[in-house]
Amino acid sequence: MVGRRGPLQAPFTTMELRELGHMEQMAEVDVVVERADFDGITDEDLAAADKTVRTNIKVLREYAELQPEGAKRRVVFRFATSPVEIRGTDKVESIVLGRNELVDEGGRVVAKDTGEREELPVQLVVRAVGYRGVAVDGLPFDERSGTIPHENGRIEGREHEYVVGWIKRGPSGVIGSNKKDSADTVETLLADLEEPRFDEGHAQELHDWLLSRQPRLVTDAHWERIDAHERAIGEAQHRPRVKVSNVEKLLGIAHG
């Protein structure tokens, strides 16, 4: 299992990571993690990381302490590694891997090729890169990174238009990353709102206009109803919340 960045950037969920080593079907499989993959992770890094990431690191370190039992199969985690070339005649026979150096670029950890290479014999390669942004008509787009160019979440060359999430920074991180990402953009939006531009009473005028365009507008008060509903269902199941994913049901709760 090859990942271009390190354990701190791996977007696992803790449940799937734990189950990897405890499923009945994995009884004859060794899970292998190298201790050296954690050498560059400091206490400060862990303190700044999302709770899920910290738990994942704990689980991965537990795997790293295990001694392989000589099982017929192994699942080997290879961090800071990227596939460079797939080789073979009429079929996959080997893969060339490149070793990466992790570099901080403006608060984002990116993988830089060190030039170090390794060739491994393989019969199957599964590509799992997840996501790449696509251009939206009328908005700028960076083809290289698959993101919308922006300054602190404010779309370049656009007025009062903002961007968050993977289309802002690329496919990286976990839910906690998106929270901070969104908070940064909202901070920019609020700063823009403080600039005087509207006459008094404009808020009501804007509200009335929005209602004329969308009668089932979801306001902050409506969101609080949805939030209370999801929390109530979750409490009954000993969970923080149970998300409602059906749009019509969400609107019904909000406006019910």
UniProtKB/TrEMBL annotation:
Highest taxon above the source species: Bacteria
Keywords: FAD, Flavoprotein, NADP, Oxidoreductase
Record GO terms (molecular function): oxidoreductase activity
SUPFAM superfamilies documented for this protein: FAD/NAD(P)-binding domain, Nucleotide-binding domain
Keyword Oxidoreductase among UniProt keywords: yes
Cofactor(s) this protein requires: FAD
Coiled coil: none
Keyword Calcium attached: no
Protein name per Swiss-Prot or TrEMBL: NADPH-dependent glutamate synthase subunit beta-like oxidoreductase
Organism whose genome encodes this protein: Mycolicibacterium neoaurum
